[in-house]
Specification:
Order of helices and strands: HHEEEEEEHHHHEHEEHEEHHEE
Number of domains: 3
Largest sheet: 6 strands, antiparallel
Shape: rod-shaped
Low-confidence stretches: 117-125, 430-435
Number of helices: 10
Number of strands: 13
Structural class: alpha+beta
Strand order of the largest sheet: 2-1-6-5-4-3
Strand content: 15-25%
Mean pLDDT: 84
Radius of gyration: 52 Å
Length: about 475
């Protein structure tokens, strides 16, 4: 049972069936109540009509023994002002729910029968009637039962007051059977008890089939995802239905996620391959120098070994930083003045081949000082490799942004390559040696750090030619 309800189809069919069942029960109860009330009102009207017919006869001074009281569907009782039964239907055998349960008329000289009450509290006190007048007030209606000619049934009784010239005030009770009401209600109830379960079964079956059809694309998506997981082939895609509904959007989003995952995995694979390739050169060079030095100490190139070791150390540091950035390392919440940072970092550089000029204005940002220092160092190193005579570093505030610019007077970056240079291990100058050009990670690291700080890093043409790298980061809020 638990496994059954773990299915969306089962839960949907059960929920729809329960909702419809509640609605049908409520509607059925309302219909039965309305039907019963309408038929009861109809019976009350028939009883009042029969009572007024008898009252009309009495108002015309028709003697008791000549009254037309032979309608089987309308048992009648007539009481005088003293509460005595003075006339009744001939076949009336038993009655309840009226002024008295007496069924046989009594002489005027006899005492009231059991159940008669001269001061009946249930009688409404109206205005005195004139001789021959029938009360125009709405008849009092009660519910009881009666046995007429051996047939017992429930009735609605209506009482009507009439004043006669010879007999005084009289009260007429006439009944109308509730058999039609009970039969109609019973028939309706039986129909509901038979029809409702059938209707619920149909609704459950239809909901099950419709839900199964609606969820078929989901099952196809699940099957394809299972196949992708088993094969580890991220180039595969789940089928996208042409329904333009939530399931189609789910399939589209799933394919977009697979595409992003494929891109990320391929990027990671390329990164590992490129990193291995980049590490191989300095390691091989260092090993060669050490092996030569071990065999011929007089030929050991200490400066070259140190240089290769430094390159290897810098590359390892770059790879480690990229790994931390890819893992989502937060930049921190410290305040950093870009102008002060630039002055301090530039003062520690001693091997620059091109002159470094500055135009620094104080502007603070929130983030990691070490990461921002790495960005500045990478941009200056890149500018130094391409500058002819000088490199310029500028910092300023521009609205809600802090702007750091590094530009040179070199040849610049071709417009079609301005996005590609930020990719990892990319070098535009294939003729440049690895020793002079680095591993191609500096600009990639700089853009990743900018993104982690909520900013951007772009390249465009400098005012005097060359490349202008512009770092924009939200300024710190004081």
């Amino acid at each position: 049972m638990k496994r059954f309800f773990s299915s969306v189809r089962a839960r949907a069919a059960t929920a729809a069936t329960l909702v419809v069942a509640v609605a049908l029960v409520a509607a059925g109860a309302a219909v039965l109540f309305s039907l019963r009330a309408n038929l009861a009102d109809q019976a009350s009207g028939q009883a009042e009509s029969a009572a007024r017919q008898v009252a009309s006869q009495l108002a015309s001074n028709v003697p008791y023994d000549q009254l037309d009281l032979d309608e089987e569907d309308h048992p009648v009782q007539v009481f005088d002002g003293d509460g005595r039964l003075v006339a009744a239907s001939e076949d009336l055998e038993r009655i309840s729910g009226t002024k008295s349960d007496a069924v046989k008329p009594r002489p005027a000289s006899s005492p009231p029968a059991k159940g008669d009450d001269d001061d009946d509290d249930d009688e409404s006190e109206g205005e005195a009637l004139e001789p021959g007048e029938i009360s125009e007030d709405r008849a009092r209606v009660t519910t009881g039962s009666a046995t007429v000619d051996g047939e017992s049934a429930d009735y609605r009784f209506a009482s009507v007051e009439v004043n006669t010239e010879k007999k005084g005030d009289l009260t007429v009770y006439a009944g109308a059977t509730l058999a039609a009401q009970q039969s109609a209600v019973s028939t309706a109830l039986t129909s509901m008890l038979i029809g409702f379960p059938l209707l619920l079964a149909v609704i459950a079956a239809v909901t099950w089939l419709v839900t199964r059809r609606a969820l078929r694309p989901v099952d196809a998506i699940r099957s394809e995802m299972a196949a992708i997981t088993a094969s580890e082939d991220l180039a595969r895609r789940v089928p996208e239905p042409d329904t333009h509904d939530e399931i189609a959007r789910l399939a589209t989003t799933t394919n977009e996620t697979l595409a992003a995952l494929q891109t990320s995995v391929e990027r990671q694979r390329r990164f590992v391959a490129d990193a291995s390739h980049e590490l191989r050169s300095p390691i091989a060079s260092l090993r060669t120098q050490l092996e030569v030095g071990a065999a011929h100490p007089e030929l050991l190139d200490v400066d070259g070994a140190v240089e290769d070791t430094v390159r290897l150390q810098e590359l390892a540091a770059d790879l480690l930083l990229l790994a931390r950035l890819d893992a989502g390392e937060k930049p921190g919440g410290g305040h950093v003045d870009l102008a002060a940072l630039a002055r301090e970092e530039l003062s520690q550089r001693t091997r620059d081949r091109a002159d470094v000029r500055t135009d620094l204005r104080s502007v603070e940002v929130t983030g990691s000082r070490s990461q921002l220092a790495r960005v500045l160092g990478n941009l200056v190193n890149n500018a130094q490799r391409h500058a002819r005579s000088h490199v310029t570093v500028a910092a300023r505030a521009e609205g809600a942004w802090a702007v750091l610019e590094v530009f040179d007077d070199g040849d610049g970056v071709p417009e079609g390559e301005r996005d590609r240079i930020f990719e990892r291990f990319v070098r535009l100058d294939d003729a440049r040696t690895r020793d002079d050009g680095g591993a191609g990670l500096g600009l990639a690291i700089a853009r990743d750090v900018a993104a982690r700080h909520g900013g951007t890093l772009t390249v465009k043409e400098a005012p005097g030619g060359g490349a202008l790298f512009e770092l924009r980061i939200p300024a710190a809020v004081r």
